[in-house]
Structures are given as structure tokens and as C-alpha cells.
Amino acid sequence: MAHSYLLLLSLLLFITFNCSMQRSMAQTDAGELATLLTIKKDWGNPSALSSWSSQNASYCSWKGVRCVNDQVLSTLSFQNLNITNPVPASICNLKNLSYLDLSYNNLTGQFPTALYGCSALQFLDLSNNHFSGALPADIDKLSSAMERLNLSSNGFTGSVPLAIAGFPKLKSLVLDTNSFNGSYPGAAIGSLTQLETLTLASNPFAPGPIPDEFGKLKKLKMLWMSGMNLTGGIPDNLSSLTELTTLALHVNKLHGEIPPWVWKLQKLEILYLYDNSFTGAIGPDITAVSLQEIDLSTNWLTGHIPESIGNLKNLWLLYLYFNNLTGPIPSSVGRLPSLADIRLFSNKLSGPLPPELGKHSLLGNLEVSNNFLSGELPHTLCFNKKLYDIVVFNTSFSGVFPAILGDCETVNNIMLYNNHFTGEFPEKVWSAFPDLTTVMIQNNSFTGTTPSVISSKITRIEMGNNQFSGDVPTSAPGLKNFRAENNQFSGPLTNNMSGLANLTELYLAGNRISGSIPPSIQSLGALNYLNLSSNQISGLLPAEIGSLLVLTILDLSNNELTGEIPQEFNDLHLSFLNLSSNQLTGELPQSLQSPAFEDSFLGNPGLCAAVNQNINIPACRYRRHNQMSTDLVILFSVLAGAILIGAVGCFIVRRKKHGRDVTSWKMMAFRKLDFSECDVLTNLREEDVIGSGGSGKVVWTPREGEPEGGRVQLRRGAAGAGDRAGGQRQQQGRRRVLPGGVGVAEVQGGGTSPRRRRREHPGQGRVRWGRRGRVRARGNVHRGRRTPPALPARAGTAATSNWDKCPRGTKVATKLPRDRMTSERSWVATWRAATSWLVLFKSSL
């Protein structure tokens, strides 16, 4: 009975307790649900939290929410949700919240002290936001249960407060990449004995040494203190940090030798000491067999690379560049089974590369340039088909390009320049390597050709100072830099340069390129540097070069270019120009007439500049002459046309006026008569002389049908200037009828200048002496025909006439109307004037 009573009582108590727990759980669920919805509202209802709804009461399944046993909310993770509003204080109403991740958002302002109320918080990540200002001095008001605090990649300033030591359970303190410019409490941090990760890197702290107190952090696995103005050396106190897997002290001002104990840390995997001033040798006895990455670059290390480095079976990265290491590369390096990236450039290493390098590992990157290495490249470099970079420039390697490298299709960069390589460079490298982007093999003795089409992945080719031949490639869609100077390329440039449209640099000086520069060069719109000097390029400079608006360096010197420099060059913005030693002519474009370019045109004697330009280039004086010539051409053309039209018009008017009285002229065949002086001078008497002068005598003589008679001029011809050298010609008398009635054809005209004294007579008309001097007649008698009279000839110097010795009474005469003579003389004078203008017009051209 009693037993049954006790059993019933226990059952009632259990039911009561269970109901109480359910009511409590229901109340808790309702409170957390309301808190979450409030947080969503305070953050502006971000779209990423659209699943948060009162209609979905199972908040443990909401985005960013995690619960323990699907009942107790413990985690909120809101990475990269673009949250901008401040952290609400209501978040701490979640009493069981232990994990809060707000990284990679856009939170601003000072450190959110609203989180002080989250008493259960163990993990807080506020990294990669935009917080600023100093950390609060009472930061230890955060949960004392804090184990991981990440405030990296923000804008916090000032010093790290001493209160940071108020988290005795802290295992990870990450404060890197801020703007702390004060100090950090080394002793306080050293008291956090549970620390496993300490990162203070990339902050401009006040210069100071590595705190000795950090040696107390026995559980520390990661010590990352790069870029924080550390000075001094590596303290020996850190040798007690036997759990270290990462020691990163790079980019500081540390000096001294690397302590030997560093090479004995058995758990050390990453050792970054680069960009300091460490000296001395690399420890000879390396037993830190867990090392995977060693970067000691950019220091002052000396001595040899120890052979014991071959013990590091896990080593895949070895960076020792920019030091003063000497001696050979140990052969044991070639046997490292994990080695993938080795960079030893800019040292004083000598000897050959390890013969097995690349055979036992997936070697991807080899950089050993700027050393004294020699010998041939090992044939094993691409044994496992993973090699992507071969960088061995500025050494003394020789021999041929290894055949196996010609099949290494994984290569991205080939840099073999400034060596002694010989032999044929594999042509398939240019087109068969799908990932190849850079080929720099200049200053060797390679031979071979390049295909017309280059892989579109290749962006840079430098192959100058070799012995390549053949044609220049015509298509390389991805190529930006092409330097192939001082080779044996020949033939013309392609007429269609659109296949090289992405070029920014084209350097082909010192080859045998012929032909002209094609107009399609305008398709190289990105071209900044063009050098085609010392070739055999001929023809004109294409005006299309002027369309290369980003071109700053142009060198076309030592070619066979002709013609003028196109005016389109005025559109260029050149910082350097060389067109010397060509055959260019004409005036320089205005923008090139500058003292900065006066040495750019040497060896082009046909080039000139404007008169008012203060440069050492001949002035273009023909420019003004050409302008004047153009003006004269226009003026003379107008005048000649006007005169010609006027003369023709005058002639037509006169012809109409006298057309009824004057019979048209007829051309008659003249009969040549020979007669003597006496035949001409018959019946003339001395008393008939009415005047005399330099041209002879004027006498009165009767004419048939005219009793009044008329005046006749008697002249004796003299030798012209052209006859004086050969002796005096026989003088001949002349008779000329002046008024125009009866006349005897004169015998011969002389050549005396019109400037000499002369005498005009009525009836001569306005016929110039220049015209008269060219008229010659030799006894052609006009018998009763109305033919054009010969113009009077200018006589020579007068002499004594023999006319008185001849018998009188002989007359040889013909009839010619005076009006006809006058009209004809006017027409001849007009025609001569027009002809003179035309002659002057032609000479001006």
C-alpha cells in the first residue's frame, strides 16, 4: 500500500516537472524568436535574411543561425551580407550566444560596446569591416569566456590596450592589418598563456624589438609579426616555442644572424624572414624536417646553400633571391620530392643546375637569373609536364634549347635572354603552347624562323640580337610587345596589319625589311612605340601614321624614305622622333618645327622649316616665291586674256569698218629678184636730200601718179653684233618709202640696239624697233598686189651712200593703201604685246 502511494506520488511530480519545463522552453523559444526578428529589423531587413519570418518558428533552420541539439541557439554567422547598420544591443538577449561572426560586411563606427552584454560569447569575428578609432580601454568587459578575437582588416588606431590581457582563456588574438600607430603591451600579451595564434602584422606600430615575454607563450603555433617596424634580432627566448608551425617576421628592420635553433624547430612548417637585413650563412645543419616553405629573400645572407637542405622532404617552396649567396646549387636540391617553386635569382651562385632538377618533383617554377651559373639546361626540367615558368636570364648558360622543353606545353613564361644559347629555337613554341604568354630570348645566338600566325595567348615577344630570319609575323591577335631588332628578318611588312591590332610596341630596327610602310598601319591604334630604323624601307611616309594618337616614340631613321613628311604628323604627340638619314624633302609639319626635334632630321638635306622658326634647319624660302608665282600666274592670265580679247575685238571692228573698201589679202608667191644698189638708187639726186642722220639720208623723189612726190629714206646696212667677230659684211644701200605710196623692198635689216638715236617719220606707224630689227627682205618685189608690207627694219650705222654713182630713171615700185598699212601695223603691235604677256606667264611657271 505504501509502495503504491510512493509510486503514484513520483508519477505526479514527473508530470508536473515536465509541464513546467515545456512552459519554460516555450517561453524561451518565443523570446529568442522575437529577438531575432528585432535584429533583422534593426539591420534594415536585409534580403539575405528573407527566410527570417514569424510564420517560420523553427529559427534553428534560418540562414546564419545554429542551435545546439536543435534547441539552444548558440551561433550567428552573418558573413558578407552587406550589413551597414550598427550592431544592435538586442543581440545580447540571446543568452546562449557563444559564436558571432560579422566579418566581411560594411559595419562602421567605433568598436561595438553593445557586445559587452553577451556574457557567453567565446568567438567574435569583426574582421574586414570599416571600424575605426581606438580600441576601448575596458575591452575586457567582453565575455571572460572569450577564446578567439579577430579584429583584423579594419581601421583601428592608437595602441593596443592593456585590458587585452583580461581574457585568460584567449587562444587566438588577430589584430593585423589595421592602423595601430602606438604600442602593443608585450608583457600583457605574454601573460595570455593559452594563446595559440598571435597576429599583430601590418600595423605601423612604433619601432621596437620582439618582446622577450613572447617566449612564455609555450602553446603558440602561429606568430605572425610582419610589417610592424620590428627592430633588433630574433630573441633566443623564442627558442622555447617548440609548438611553432609558422614564424613570420618578414618586412621589418631585423638584423643579425638567423639563430641556429630556428632550423631545429621540428614542427615548423612556414618560415618567412624576407625583407629584413639578416646576415651570415644559412644554418649548416637543417633538421626542421616539417618545413614546407622557406622565404629568406631580400636580405644580406652569404655563404653556400647547405647540402642538408636536401633533408626537407616536404619542402615545396624555396625563395633565396636577392642575397649574396655563393657557390653551387647543391645537387640534393634536385632530389627534393616535393619541390615545385624555386627562386634563387640575383645572387652569386655558380656552376650548373642540379642535373636531376625536375625529375623527382612536380617542378613548376624555376627562377635562377642574375647569377654566374653556366652549362646547359637539364633535360629533366619538364620531366613531369608541370613546368610553367623558365626564368634563367642574365647568366652564362649555353648549348641548345632542350628538346624536352619544346614539348612542355604547360609553360607560361620563357625568359632565356642574355645568355649564350645557340641552335634553332623550336618553331612550334610560337603556336603550340596553349598557355604561353611571354617569350624573352634576346641576346643569344638562336636561329630559326617565326610562323606567320602567332598564338593569341602570347602578349610579349622579345627576340632581338639573334639570328632569326624569314618574314615578320602577320597575325598575333594578343601580342602587345614585339621586339625583334638586329636579326635577319627580310621582306616587306604585311599589307594587312589588322592581325597585329593590339600592339603597343613594335621594334624591328637593324633587319633587312624592305618595301614601304603600308597604310594599314593605322589599324595599330594602341601603338605607343614604333622603331623601324636601319632597314631598307623605301617609298613615302604614309599619312596614316598621323592617326596613331597614342604614339609617343617614332624612329624611322637610316632607311630610304622619300617625299614629304605628311601634315597629318601634326596630330601626333611625340616625345621622341628620329627620321634622320633618309631622303625626305619639303617643309616640316608645324608641330615638328621645334628645337626639341632639330636633331631628328639630320641627313635629309631636302627638308626645311618656316623662316620664323628658331631651329637649326634650313628655311623654306621657296614658299614665298611659290606664293608670288601663284599670284603672278593669276594676274598674268587675266591680263593676257583681256589683251587678247581686246585685240581680237579691235581687229574685228576695224575689219568690218573697212571691209567694203579693202579687198581681202591674197597670199602670192614671191619671185626673188637680184638687183644692185644702182638699180635701187636710180633717178635720185643730191639736191633732193632733205635730211640725214644716223640711219642714213632722206630724199624727195617723185612717185607715179603723185606729182607732189614723197620722202624716201636711204640707209646703208651695217653688220650686226653677231657679224663683227667674223669681219665686216658688205654694206648694202636701202630705199624705203615712208608715207606708204610707192616703195622698194629693202635689202637687209641690221641689229643695232633700239636705245641708240633714231628718227621717226610720218607714215611709219607705231611699229617698235624690236620688231623692225627682225624683219629681213631680199629684193622681193610686190607687183600690183595688195600684200602685207614688211615692217621697217632698224638700220645699222649710217655710211656714205654710193647712190650718186648709179644711172637715173629706174623705178621699181608697187602700190599699197596707207589705211591698210596702218591697220596691219596696229594689229601686229597688239599681237606682240599679247605674245609678250604669254611668254612672261610661261616663264613664271
TrEMBL record:
Residues 740-752 have a biased composition (Gly residues). This is Leucine-rich repeat-containing N-terminal plant-type domain-containing protein. Residues 1-26 form the signal peptide. Belongs to the RLP family. Residues 31-67 form the Leucine-rich repeat-containing N-terminal plant-type domain. Keywords: Cell membrane, Glycoprotein, Leucine-rich repeat, Membrane, Receptor, Repeat, Signal, Transmembrane, Transmembrane helix. The chain crosses the membrane at residues 632-653. It is a single-pass type I membrane protein. Its main location: membrane. It comes from Miscanthus lutarioriparius. The keyword DNA repair does not apply. Pfam families: LRR_1, LRR_4, LRR_8, LRRNT_2. It is found in: Cell membrane.
